[in-house]
Design a protein that fits this description.
The protein is of the alpha/beta class and about 375 residues long. The chain has 2 domains: about 5-260, Acetylglutamate kinase-like (Carbamate kinase), CATH 3.40.1160; about 275-365, Archaeosine Trna-guanine Transglycosylase, Chain: A, domain 4 (Roll), CATH 2.30.130.10. It is built from 13 helices and 13 strands. It has helices at about 25-40, 50-60, 70-90, 105-110, 110-125, 150-160, 195-200, 210-225, 240-245, 265-270, 285-290, 335-340, 345-350; strands spanning about 5-10, 45-50, 95-100, 130-135, 165, 190, 230-235, 250-255, 275-280, 300-305, 315, 325-330, 365. The strands form 2 sheets. It has an 8-stranded mixed sheet with strand order 3-4-2-1-5-7-8-6, with helices on both faces. A 5-stranded mixed sheet has the order 10-9-11-12-13, sandwiched between helices. The longest helix has 25 residues, at about 70-90. It is elongated and about 70 Å long. The two termini are about 30 Å apart. The protein binds adenosine-5'-diphosphate (ADP) and the ligand N[C@@H](CCC(=O)OP(=O)(O)O)C(=O)O. The site of adenosine-5'-diphosphate has 24 residues, from helix 8.
Length: about 375
């Protein structure tokens, strides 16, 4: 079988006992299955929830906290316990683990995003098992990944994984929540995730999970657009992950193989970067950059909004004010005010630089007309 790079996401619902606390037996079963996957030569990255579940009892709560501060404090206790349990389990299989705790802020700046990717690449090269979770204890509300489903999709893109396996307590995506509607039918295969499916899918989840099936479907849409093939479902026993990879999993498979992957620089622009201003362009420029793969030149620019420096990211809008994409600019907003609408030769005289008067190079551009991310 072809060796793959696989991200496995394990949700709280697959790691906890009936009281919502961490269930070591379940964790050990996942450990065995992950070890078998690695033993077959696949490169594996684990995105694991469970920090809040593992920590809330020692914090003094009788049930999983609902307040942000309660969850953050529980995760501060539980993350260490979770990693300790994983390390002990993987040690039995001769596997060394590494921990990465990420926040959204860690990926906003391009160099930090690239560093996270480089660290993961080095760990995989040396056959280490990276275990990733959101850094819940210091995450800021409104600037979180939302849930580990989306985090696992973003990690899949970052490492250019061929497959994302989302393990949960239900065997796939159903037409309705099967816990409340016994007539709901399972989708065995979906070639794509239309927006309508996301809208229709419930965010009702288990008592310990975040986001229910809705967040998994949303994550699957993102992962698919980044070129990853997805499985959402459940399984049991040490061979469950191998069965899933071989196409015999109990759940929903999403996307055909093989997928075209999206370059990391484009992923960063589309999913992580912060826009510092806006550039309005005329019809010709809008067409050139969004449909014809050209770079943006000063001549097509009609207006500049906001203040930004060279290298920062801006949104580009068409004459109707519709955002058509975003890119990293080679000039500051002040410089662009001077050269907007000018041909490159005239712009060069004003900026007094010998460099090519490209405002956004096509390699630093992400078009909304392209993939649905
Ligand atoms: N359309 C649906 N198909 C399948 N499960 C659904 C659907 N809508 C809601 N759910 C619920 O989503 C739950 C899984 O989500 P969640 O508890 O967040 O899991 P996890 O902890 O693994 O992230 C299931 O137990 C199920 O009750
Ligand atoms: N980061 C949190 C879990 C967040 C989350 O998305 O949970 P889940 O929906 O169970 O995957 C934790 O470790 O408890």
């Amino acid at each position: 079988m072809k060796k793959k790079r696989i991200v496995v996401k394990i949700g709280s619902s697959s790691l906890t006992n009936t009281h919502g606390g961490l269930c070591i037996e379940k964790l050990q079963e996942h450990g065995q299955a992950l070890a078998r996957l690695k033993a077959q030569g696949h490169e594996v990255i684990l995105v694991s929830s469970g920090a809040v579940a593992a920590g809330f009892t020692d914090l003094g709560y009788s049930t999983r906290p609902v307040s942000i501060v309660g969850k953050q404090a529980a995760a501060a206790i539980g993350q260490g316990q979770l990693l300790h349990a994983y390390s002990e389990e993987f040690r039995k299989h001769g596997i060394v683990t590494a921990q990465l705790l990420l926040t959204r802020q860690n990926l906003l700046a391009k160099d930090l995003y690239q560093n996270a990717g480089a660290t993961l690449a080095e760990l995989l090269k040396r056959n280490i098992l990276p275990i990733i979770n959101e850094n819940d204890s210091v995450s800021v509300e409104g600037l979180t990944f939302g849930d580990n489903d989306m985090l696992s999709a973003l990690v899949s893109g970052l490492v250019q994984a061929q497959m994302l396996i989302i393990l949960t307590d239900i065997n796939g995506i159903y037409s309705d929540n099967p816990r409340s509607n016994p007539d709901a039918e399972r989708y065995d295969f979906l070639s794509e995730i239309p927006d309508q499916l996301i809208e229709e899918t419930s965010s009702e989840g288990s008592i310990v999970g975040t986001g229910g099936m809705k967040s998994k479907v949303e994550a699957a849409q993102t992962a698919l657009a980044l070129g990853t093939h997805i499985f959402i479902g459940s399984g049991s026993g040490p061979d469950k992950l191998l069965d899933i990879v071989e196409g015999n999993g109990d759940g929903t498979y999403i996307g055909d193989e093989p997928q075209a992957t999206v370059k990391n620089s484009k992923q960063w622009l589309a999913l992580h970067s912060v826009a510092h201003g806006k550039i309005e362009v005329d019809h010709g420029a809008a067409l050139a950059i969004s449909q014809q793969g050209r770079s943006l030149l000063p001549v097509g620019i009609t207006e500049i909004f906001g203040r930004f420096t060279a290298e920062e990211v801006v949104e580009v809008v068409d004459p109707a004010g519709e955002v058509i994409g975003r890119g990293q600019v080679n000039f500051s907003s002040e410089e662009l005010q001077e050269i907007k609408g000018l041909c490159s030769k005239a712009a060069r005289v004003i900026t007094k630089t010998g460099k090519r008067q490209v405002v956004i190079h096509r390699s630093q551009w992400f078009s909304h007309a392209g993939k649905g991310i």
